[in-house]
Amino acid sequence: MAVTRADKEAELQVLETAFRGSKSAILVDYKGLNVPQVTELRRQLRAAKASYKVVKNTLARRALKGTSFEALSEHFQGTTGVAYTATDPIALAKTLATLVKALPTLTIKAAVVDGRAIKPAEVNELALMPGRPELLAKLLFVLLAPMVQIVSVLSAAPRDLMSVLVQAEKKRALEVPEGL
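Above: the chain sequence. Below: its structure as tokens.
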């Protein structure tokens, strides 16, 4: 069945919407993957709050015009799949890096993260970074540290006073003879 012009225009609209609503996109060459492997790829990307789409190169190049992903245009050659996310680019990179190790036929072509084009090797470096939840936890720890120290300092004076009083009472008990 032939693809009509209306179908192509609808697909172009879907791609434009996907690219405009995304922060990051990673292009992959999926040549050599079988159906169960592609299904697993999609399942893991969904778990990372990302989407995956196999695209026609010409339509994808048109959809990229006017977006921050225009730098990817030259990489739309051969079998191309696009993994994109509007939330956490690190989770997307981690998921794809893990999949590339598990599926040797899957390769990363190029990527754009927050409007900046990066090379495939940089995607692996991005995957090594801590994720958003880990970074937020570290930030929270740094913000809470001064308050914890203040509470510790303020509670030290009464605690030390009680320690001195207990020691003084023990010393007096030793000095006073028992029968008096």
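The first strand starts at residue 24 and ends at 29.
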